[in-house]
Amino acid sequence: EVQLVESGGGLVQAGGSLRLSCAASGFTFDDYVTGWFRQAPGKEREGVSCISGSDGSTYYADSVKGRFTISSDNAKNMVYLQMNGLKPADTAVYYCVAGVLRPGGLPPPHGVDFNSWGQGTQVTVSS
Length: 127
What we know:
single chain, mainly beta, 11 strands, seven-stranded mixed β-sheet
């Protein structure tokens, strides 16, 4: 059974930094794409970033490029999201996700079925 447990959320002032961590279990890291989605109140869920376990390639939403950095430690089954230059617009519940790349399909994130989700961690950025 795939399990994803997030930590590291909290309250920070605009311009500050947070580091989210996700402890993963129940699957072989090298075979999966892991990443982060977020959802703010009244808004649609948004894919933030993901990383391929096989080759380490990364993806970032335009809204976070240059400010957020995703990384993973395959030996420890951990995924991290370093968030710098936080803005009030980044306020949301952040979810760790994992999925498998569909064979012959699009590259991550569009070609991934993110079927496993953590419980989420709240990030609040004050102005």
